[in-house]
Every structure is written in structure tokens, then in C-alpha cells.
UniProtKB/TrEMBL annotation:
The lineage of its organism: Eukaryota, Metazoa, Spiralia, Lophotrochozoa, Mollusca. Residues 37-62 are annotated as: Disordered. One of its GO terms (molecular function) is DNA binding. This is Tyr recombinase domain-containing protein. It comes from Dreissena polymorpha (Zebra mussel). GO terms for biological process: DNA integration; DNA recombination. InterPro entries: DNA_brk_join_enz, Integrase-like_cat_sf, Integrase_catalytic, Integrase_recombinase_N. Gene3D superfamilies: 1.10.150.130, Intergrase catalytic core. Pfam families: Phage_integrase. Keywords: DNA recombination, DNA-binding. PANTHER family: CORE-BINDING (CB) DOMAIN-CONTAINING PROTEIN, PHAGE_INTEGRASE DOMAIN-CONTAINING PROTEIN. Residues 39-56 have a biased composition (Polar residues). Coiled coil: none annotated.
């Protein structure tokens, strides 16, 4: 969900310590920034000095937002090789979100005639206040805060860790609380009824077969669209009663100390109409002849020339099944499959530990806060979801 994504992406470094309530603010550790920029109300940072001596550097910072972070490391003397690794600590999704607020920061500084990298805590708080008055919520402001912390320091601490900024964010939370996108979720049974109607699989069109496979994978693994999209045929192992799929790319939930590199697609004997193993076998057989030799992704377009599909297409396929099942997609997005499947598993007495492992969570508070929802109309995980 949106709020979960913002909170996680605002965590600047792993293995960090919280500066305040971890449910309210992003995590950071001042020691992680020992080589970063120094800035206070009157003290100029080293990068600011560089910009004054090299005006073209400042122009580069304004034109390419994340380059401000890269330039800050370079100005501190880090080699290009080290800087490349440091920049890799932010994934592409986080960088895109950071770019938005770093760009707005430069625009704000230009408007107020402020040196964008040598600022006071007042400048940062006034910028966040302007964003707040634009209607930006707590989670988005938390992302802005993390973006500024990536290259600004106030009185020898990351900008977002300054006590005044922390106090400001508490005020934002009280005035505009961060709420979950959903307070309830849809009934999986509605989707299962529709999927059962798509039988037998041998008689389905490639479009119907694709839609059924995608939704069953998402349901039985509480999977994100990204996870389904990354499935690869050359990493797929067929066993007697299950397919084992290994990932060669990082997933959203991938992190140090947590292995989520394998996805299981298990046979479901109680009802072959809902058996993802059966559907997968048919899909692989059906697409073998039309699959481009250069495309190793599991999912291909059901329209000629059957090329690779994007993550957004996978999300659209999931929404299509939801629409055909009578789910209101103006309220629920493709990501809601995670809350729907995990909530049903909970209602069927699947242990929280099993749900967390399947969904890729390490803290039960994540499940309880964002995914353990009341359902509208009122082997373990798969059976509970498909019952």
C-alpha cells in the first residue's frame, strides 16, 4: 500500500537506529553520515564551497536531482567506484521519489534565494511547511525528509534527524495523520468463483489462461505485481507437486538478512479448478511455441507477437480479474490482493508466522497495520486462501 511504501522507502540506511517512534518517522543513524555534508545556520558546507568555485557543478545539481547526492559524496573525496556503490543503496523506486522532492527543494531555494546546500534548520522546516500547505500528507513529507537527509546536514546531524525537524513531523502527524489506504478488503471468494468458471483450462483462450494464472499466483503467494512480473522460465523448476521459481532480481521485500528468493506454486488437489500448478503446466505448454526465444520472462502478451509485458500490464491483468469478479476497482487496486489473501488466511486460522513468511514481512506490526483487514461480506496458506 501507498503508506507502507512511503514509510519503507524513507528508511535511508539499513541496520539503523530510530530517531523517534519508528511508526512515525524514518530511521537513520548519524554515524552513517560521518562523511556527508556539514551545514548549519552560519556554517557553509564543503560542497557549497565547491559550487562557488565551480558554478557548472551547481548547474548539474539542479538539472539532475540525484546528482546532488552523488556530487556530495564526490566532494567529500570518495572515489567514483565507492560513490557508485553508495548510490546503489537507494533503489530506483526510492530515487524516483527522492528526485521529486530534491527538485522541489532546489526550486524552493531558487525562489527564496537560499544556498541549496548550506542551509539552516529554519530553511528546511519552512520548505516542509510549504509542502504541507500544498496538501502533502505525512508519508510524503517523510519521503521529502529522507530525500533532504541524503545530502544535507544540520548542526552535524542529517537534516531529517534534527530535533526541530522531528518535532515538526510530530506536528504534521497530529494535524494530518497517516492513515491506511484501506480499512476493509474484498472477499476472495468472489474472485475464486470467477476463476472456477474459467475451466477446464484446455478450453480457455490464451487471454483467459493468462488472467487466471496471474491471479492465482498473486493470491496463493500474497504477491505484488512486481513479484509476478519478475518470474522467469529459465529459473523455473518443475517438481512432482509444485513449481519452484527462483528470482535473479531483487524484490521490493528483499533486504539484508532476509531471503525471499524462491516462490512456490503448489498443487491444490481439493479443487483442480483452483490449482495454480495445473494452470501453470497448461500455460507453459500453450506458450512454448509462441514465446520469443529472447524472452525469458514467464509472462508474455496474449496478443501477437507475444512479446514481454511490463509490471503495469500485470497490474492491469489483476484488475481485469477483479472487475470480472465484481470487485470495485475504483476503491481497490491490484496491490489489494495482498491484504485480501492474507486477511482470508488469517480468518482461516493460518498462524501469523506463516502469513508473514509467505508475504515477505519480518514485523507482524506491518501485517496488523496495513493488511489484517475485515473482509467485506463477511499444505496451509494456499488451502486457507482457496477454501
Amino acid at each position: 500500500m501507498r503508506s507502507e511504501n512511503f514509510l519503507r522507502q524513507s528508511q535511508v540506511f539499513d541496520n539503523s537506529t530510530p530517531v523517534a517512534n519508528t511508526n512515525l518517522v524514518f530511521k537513520t543513524n548519524g554515524n552513517d553520515y560521518k562523511g556527508a555534508l556539514h551545514s548549519s545556520g552560519n556554517q557553509k558546507s564543503s560542497i557549497s564551497t565547491t559550487l562557488r568555485s565551480n558554478p557548472s557543478a551547481g548547474k548539474r545539481l539542479s538539472s539532475d536531482c540525484m546528482s546532488s547526492v552523488r556530487e556530495s559524496f564526490r566532494c567529500q573525496g570518495f572515489s567514483r567506484r565507492a560513490t557508485k556503490i553508495l548510490m546503489s543503496s537507494w533503489r530506483s523506486g526510492t530515487q524516483k521519489q527522492y528526485q521529486t522532492y530534491i527538485s522541489r527543494w532546489f526550486q524552493y531555494c531558487d525562489k527564496c534565494k537560499i544556498d541549496s546546500v548550506s542551509v539552516s534548520v529554519k530553511d528546511v522546516v519552512e520548505f516542509l511547511t510549504e509542502e504541507f500547505e500544498r496538501g502533502v500528507g505525512y508519508s510524503a513529507l517523510n519521503t521529502a525528509r529522507g530525500a533532504l537527509s541524503s545530502f544535507l546536514r544540520l548542526e552535524n546531524v542529517p537534516a531529517g534527524s534534527h530535533p526541530v525537524v522531528i518535532r515538526f513531523m510530530k506536528g504534521v502527524f497530529n494535524l494530518r495523520p497517516c492513515k491506511s489506504k484501506y480499512t476493509k478488503t474484498w472477499d476472495v471468494q468472489n474472485v475464486l468463483t470467477y476463476l472456477k468458471s474459467l475451466s477446464p483450462v484446455k478450453h480457455l483462450s490464451l487471454k483467459e489462461l493468462t488472467l487466471k494464472l496471474v491471479m492465482l499466483i498473486a493470491l496463493t503467494n500474497a504477491a505484488r505485481s512486481q513479484t509476478v512480473h519478475l518470474l522467469s522460465v529459465n529459473k523455473l523448476i518443475k517438481e512432482k507437486s509444485q513449481f519452484v521459481v527462483q528470482f535473479d532480481s531483487l524484490l521490493k521485500q528483499s533486504r539484508p538478512g532476509f531471503d525471499y528468493s524462491v516462490l512456490l506454486l503448489k498443487c491444490y488437489p481439493p479443487d483442480r479448478r483452483l490449482c495454480v500448478y495445473t494452470v501453470m503446466k497448461e500455460y507453459l505448454s500453450r506458450t512454448k511455441k509462441v514465446r520469443p526465444s529472447t524472452n525469458k520472462k514467464l509472462l508474455i502478451s496474449y496478443i501477437r507477437p507475444h512479446g514481454p509485458v511490463s509490471k503495469d500490464t500485470v497490474s492491469r491483468w489483476i484488475r481485469t480479474v477483479m472487475i470480472k469478479s465484481g470487485i470495485d476497482v475504483t476503491v481497490y487496486g491490484a496491490h489489494s490482493v495482498r491484504s485480501a489473501s492474507t486477511s482470508k488466511a488469517r480468518d482461516n486460522n493460518v498462524p501469523i508466522s506463516v502469513i508473514m513468511k509467505r508475504a515477505g514481512w519480518t514485523a507482524d506490526s506491518t501485517f496488523k497495520k496495513y493488511y489484517s483487514l475485515n473482509i467485506e461480506n463477511d499444505s496451509m496458506f494456499e488451502n486457507a486462501v482457496l477454501q
